[in-house]
Amino acid sequence: MTAVPAVPTPRGQVRERPGRELVPAQFGLLDPLTDIAHGYYLDGFSDDAVTACRMWAVLADAVDDVVTSRYLLYIQAVALLELGRYGDAVDVAAQLIDSLDGADEPVWRAKALAATAEASTRLARPSAAIAALAEADWLVRSVPSGTYGHLSASMALALALRSANLVERSDEVLSRLDGLGDALVEVLIIQELALLSAHWATVLSLIGRREEARRHYADTARRALRMQACARLADSPSMVARGEVIEAFAMLHLGDTELAAARARGAAGRFDARPELMESHLLLLVLGTSAARGGDLLGARLHLRALVRDAEGCGREVWAMAGRAALADVDTLQHGEAEGTVLWREVAQTALASVWAEREARFAALRDQDSIRDLTERADRYGRDILEDPLTGLGNRRMLTRALKGQVGDSVIFVDVDEFQA
Description:
- There is one protein chain.
- By secondary structure, this protein is an all-alpha fold.
- The protein has 18 helices and no strands.
């Protein structure tokens, strides 16, 4: 682990969040510290991000910088998710919610709930995950689009939806976003879209739906190319390289093994392939699969075993299963199709297909939660409407009666006779 600076000296360029000039009230006095912590997280140094957030939270609390404290809690929560420390992530997200103290803060509540939902999914707590997801989704809709708050909360929601395999809704949320004029944020949005397509295609491949998977591999390639173009505009060579790895992954599955391997090897030295990064999993899968197809079975096993180890360490079961499936292919190349390998494939495919099929129940649960909230909101609105005069918008006789009944002791009520409707 690298040393975490006690003063705002970033690892690379400081990643300014979009909208700073438009909505300065959304950022605290010590906001540069959150830029650095977020940079650690983006670059795969999640341990450093957690350490920095905990250390700098003490400083933010000491100067009563509430906004910076909230950012540090959120960054800490998502970094813990990347480290596979899901229980800790739930605890930190709960701290963030508690810090709101009942205030009407839909953006912060949505982000904290999204982190809670993702952690709950990983902890096999589907009821808690769906409840948190549904509320986060509802809250995001109440945030004005075209603002940093909407962008930030939507990104958090999309990642939580992906973790629950609700990929269609995740794709819908991400596809509506833009970077608000910030080139690096555009990169991050299209990166998540490309990784979502890669995840989607991989699951479909693993459960045997190869024709559907091929369409999503094509989407992955298209989005990876767009990511590279945006990264060049943002002057981010490491993001260009990560985009090339995603492109190589798509090319591998679209049938161009040699070009995919060359593309992956060329990109490997231009970014720090930390085990927390999704692109690191894709890189190992491309190198391992291409080595196997080229006859280097030992090299293939080394890459693929590293993939399984890293993916399991981060709690990414889809990528761990993809690594195991590729290792089974290597065994088949070396020893032929063994009965045990065939049985393993059938069991693994059935298990993943069952998990994938559960998405329908999750979609239904989200719709039910939305319907309940919609009915509650409508009832509240109707309740308010019957207490107002439709012409003037002022309180009517019912409101007067309620006000009088609610008074304790002496009181005075002023009524504008000219406007009051009998």
